Amino acid sequence: MNIAMIGAGYVGLTTGACLASLGHRVSIFDIDVRRTAQLRQGQVPIYEPGLAEMIEAGVANGGLRFHDDLAKAVENTAAVFIAVGTPSRPDGSIDLSHVEAAARAVAPLLRGGAVIVVKSTVAAGTCKRIRELIAEERQALDIHVASNPEFLREGSAISDFLEPERVVFGFDDPASGEVLDRIYRPLASRTTIVRTSCVNAELTKHVANAFLAMKIEFVNQVADLCEKIGADVTSVSRGIGLDSRIGSSFLTAGPGFGGSCFPKDTRAYARLARAHGVGQSLVETVISGNQARRVALADRILAEAALVPGDTVAVLGLAFKANTDDTRESAALAIVPRLAERGVRVRLHDPKAPMADELRHERVTWSASPYAAADGAQAVVMLTEWDEYRDLKIGHLKRVMSGNHLFDFRNLYAAEDVTGAGLVHHSIGRPAQRPRELGAVPAHARIQPRAAAGRRLRTA
Ligand code: UDX
């Protein structure tokens, strides 16, 4: 089938390349002509495992093309996917202006009977709104609108697309359902297809992400308690997760959720519900709890490593999770500025993510390796679960550091490996463990800032 994709961002590129790999002819349009030019030259602007190879194969066999001319991209297409950005507005609601502009732009160009498929994450009710825009643009409603939310995780987006647990089709007319059936026929035998109305499909996406975010915030709150009472959150998570009613995924405690979806989608969901006068106190608590967590973790570093202005901390990991170069709403974006504002020098490292503009500060510098970042540092803080950070030589790290605190906020290390190398192991959801030679910390002496030139850091 001839398919057009509006938007060559993360979702549009991945979905477009995967649809081409299923045998469809896919034309990807982007308003950014530099981006389409780059893609035509074989340069893929985002890092996603397997994506560059898939795009190369699609271009080579003629199944995938990049356009900066919208009319050419949508010519003779039976379906046009809209996969443009839906950023958060300051009040948490979704800015749908790019989706609406894309719908208005394609509406006059489509042949009768074509289907506009909304792939971008939108507020429930958006398909209805798009139908109104189309009626204005064409003075008729002879094209259809459907919803097909994406559930792709960065880092495993291609297998998430090709081996999905479910695919959701939202449509309010039979013709749209038939077009979606034809598009996804190659996957139909390997997955469950949920056929429902547009509004249900739109809401399903937000509710799925709100629920997953709630699991994470829940386990993070459990982790806080575990640290206080000498329990281990990893063991508790495993113990509850084996109950299939709970499920073991998304119960890994850490520095809070980030990325382009969970923070934005939870805010949008809560805002939509509030606009309809239906409080969503659970999700609102998740949003505020996740934000507060980052502040609390920064303060924990300052206090437990007893940092004073002028001290150096190595922060390993800018990406919001491993296997992506995406830094949107990552833990580092909240924790690093708080450390720098307290006079601490921060050395950053990430194997894939670039320096984020939000972190540019006179006390924040970039390091070429984890060991270079740790050189002379009082503390090392691990924020992303990159494999590279799981394999560090802790003894070497200790030798280059001037302090002895490892904040392992992704629980990458066994405490004995860290304490055995002479570092204090501060992890998530387990009490801190100190090397034997340092002895136990008497309760009254815990979290006392190191006395240096009489300067103490305020952490609140
Ligand atoms: C998410 C959804 O999983 C996907 O279905 C949706 O369509 C887009 O949003 P993504 O943002 O790529 O995907 O990342 P995901 O793997 O879901 O992780 C989101 C955040 O939660 C990351 O910061 C991750 O580190 C954190 N997380 C995840 C945890 O802290 N604990 C967990 O157990 C799982």
Summarize the structure.
The chain is an alpha/beta fold and 460 residues long. It is built from 17 helices and 14 strands. Strand 5 (115-118), helix 6 and strand 6 form a beta-alpha-beta unit.
Helical segment count: 17
Q: Helix- and strand-based class?
A: alpha/beta
Give a list of the ligands.
Answer: uridine-5'-diphosphate-xylopyranose
> In one word, what is the shape?
elongated
Fraction in helix: 40-55%
Strand order of the largest sheet: 3-2-1-4-5-6-7-8
The strand count comes to 14
Query: In oligomeric terms, what are we looking at?
Result: single chain
Largest sheet: 8 strands, mixed
Gyration radius over CA: 25 Å
State the distance separating the first and last CA atoms: 59 Å
Q: What does the average pLDDT come to?
A: 94
- How much of the sequence is in beta strands? 5-15%
pLDDT < 50 stretches: 442-460
Helices and strands, with pairings:
Layout: E1 2-6, H1 10-21, E2 25-29, H2 33-40, H3 51-60, E3 64-67, H4 70-74, E4 79-82, H5 97-106, E5 115-118, H6 126-138, E6 144-147, H7 157-162, E7 166-171, H8 174-188, E8 192-196, H9 198-229, H10 233-241, H11 262-275, H12 281-304, E9 312-316, H13 331-341, E10 345-349, E11 364-366, H14 370-374, E12 379-382, H15 387-390, H16 394-400, E13 405-408, H17 415-420, E14 424-427
Parallel strand pairs: 1-2, 1-4, 2-3, 4-5, 5-6, 7-8, 9-10, 9-12, 10-11, 12-13, 13-14
Antiparallel strand pairs: 6-7
The structure holds uridine-5'-diphosphate-xylopyranose (UDX).
Uridine-5'-diphosphate-xylopyranose is lined by residues 150-154, 209, 216, 250-252, 254, 257-259, 261-262, 320-321.
